[in-house]
Design goal:
Number of helices: 18
Distance between the termini: 45 Å
Shape: globular
Oligomer: single chain
Structural class: alpha/beta
Radius of gyration: 25 Å
Largest sheet: 6 strands, mixed
Number of strands: 14
Strand order of the largest sheet: 11-10-9-12-13-14
Length: 459
């Protein structure tokens, strides 16, 4: 299932004979080793020797080493240097601060800073609401994490989480012109996190919680929403739920089924799974079965986590018990936000006709997408190298753009649903098909559409 990816791209600089068959031999060795050669650049050329940069996508780090060894094993080839292109992109970080005003002379300085800035401070002191109008607060979001649940890497801490938060900030700016900043907290104490976020909130127009482990993330978000007068959004929960809903709406159109009629199985009852279930339930999906590591959640079991207890009490009307595989028999929809390789082709084959499979575990899905496609009518993943990528970047930039433009103070289900409908509607009826149920993350119309949908319903 694994294929070469730009996430494991390397550039190998080699010295080689200046002969007609050299580049062909290099390309052949890379292909034989399973690599994808994406660029070949001659850096130096001499009568008998040349220096070539080979840019190659690999499957993982070990595969990149295998490819490099294969290149170095060719007769007359010397590997000079190997560069990991992902590490190169991250050198020095991915974001920076730039001034929006010119500071060319003393006049500029006296208005931007002292003494003129004192008048702005006094205006805000007299009317704190003016901070949204006269400072970065009107367009700035804090991306807050404690590093306890980063991607699929787990509890790696705040410093190791920073590259992800930088990337999030870069996406905010790229897709919605929102200024976002990483706030990586060196504590995993719920009370301290809440206190710190409350203390720094005056600078920001919104809070984006990110990669905080369940169940603490639920309490942190709920209490911050009560305490702050700016919107608090947990992207792992609500960003995922928005995009899943958008994709499901269009997938159901493809298979000609209604959300109120289908049987939905959700694998994973952490932050994302819980938010997805709640939003689908709000929209009338009543036949939902949720499965965690210990199997299907049902009314006959007591759960210490109140969110799991709510799922058990609210969903699974048939009283299904057993494993995820048991629950999947006859299901119309599978939504996986859990772990890789939980299912195989035979499990998908036991689903209902014209089934929908969203295998969103990243980087390795719950089931091989190609195998799932042998039986399901629509297959989606979280990966960029398969059709129908369900990616939160479709939601959060435009969502916050709408919140900031409206000066919103809170977030409601109405806003989440409006955002999901806007994403779904970007795909026109003429474009809709089993391999195109959500727009590209680079579609420039997505974020403005989401912002426009959220703005009028923001509170």
């Amino acid at each position: 299932m694994s294929v070469p990816s730009p996430g494991y791209s390397i550039t190998v600089r080699v010295e080689a004979p200046a002969a007609s068959g050299t580049t062909g031999g290099l390309a052949g060795a890379i292909g034989a080793a399973g690599g994808a050669l994406t660029a070949l650049d001659v850096v130096e050329s001499h009568h008998d020797r040349m220096v070539v940069d080979l840019t190659i996508d690999a499957v993982d780090v070990a595969h990149a080493d295998t490819i490099t060894t294969a290149i170095g094993g060719l007769t007359g080839i010397e590997v000079r240097k190997v560069s990991d292109r992902t590490f190169l992109m991250h050198l020095g970080g991915k974001i920076e601060v730039r001034s929006k005003v010119s500071l060319r002379n003393r006049d500029d300085l006296s208005r931007a800073y002292t003494p003129g800035v004192a008048r702005i401070c006094q205006a805000i002191a007299a009317n704190p609401a003016d901070a949204r109008r006269l400072t970065i607060k009107r367009n700035t979001v804090a991306v807050v994490t404690d590093g306890s649940a980063v991607l699929g890497l787990g509890n790696i801490g705040p410093a190791a989480a920073l590259p992800v938060m930088e990337g999030k900030a870069a996406l905010f700016k790229r897709f919605a012109n929102v200024d976002a900043w990483p706030v990586c907290l060196d504590t995993q104490d719920t009370e301290k996190i809440i206190d710190i976020v409350c203390a720094l909130a005056p600078v920001y127009g919104g809070i984006n919680l990110e990669d905080i482990a369940a169940p603490r993330c639920f309490e942190i978000e709920a209490r911050l929403r009560k305490l702050l007068d700016i919107p608090v959004f947990h992207d792992d929960q609500h960003g995922t739920a928005i995009v899943v809903l958008a994709a499901l709406r269009n997938a159901l159109r493809v298979v000609e089924k209604e959300i109120t009629d289908v049987r939905i199985v959700v694998s994973g009852v952490g932050a994302a799974g819980t938010a997805i279930i709640r939003l689908l339930h709000t929209l009338g999906a009543h036949d939902i079965v949720a499965a965690g590591r210990s199997g299907v959640l049902h009314r006959g079991q007591h759960y210490a986590d109140p969110n799991r207890q709510w799922i058990a009490a609210t969903t699974n009307p048939r009283g299904t018990t057993g494993s995820l595989k048991d629950a999947l028999v006859g299901a119309d929809v599978f939504i996986g936000v859990s772990a890789p390789r939980l299912l195989d082709e035979t499990d998908v084959a036991k689903m209902a006709d014209r089934a929908i499979v969203f295998a969103l575990s990243n980087p390795d899905p719950e089931v091989d997408p190609a195998a799932a496609g042998e039986h399901a009518a629509v297959v989606a993943t979280g990966r960029s190298d398969y059709p129908n990528q369900i990616n939160n970047v479709l939601a959060f930039p435009g969502f916050f753009r709408g919140l900031l433009d409206a000066g919103a103070h809170d977030i409601t289900d109405t806003m989440l649903i409006a955002a999901a409908n806007a994403i779904a509607d970007v795909v026109s009826p003429d474009e809709l098909n089993p391999t195109f149920i959500v727009p590209s993350v680079f579609d420039p119309t997505v974020a403005p559409a989401v912002a426009a949908a959220v703005r009028p319903v923001a509170t």
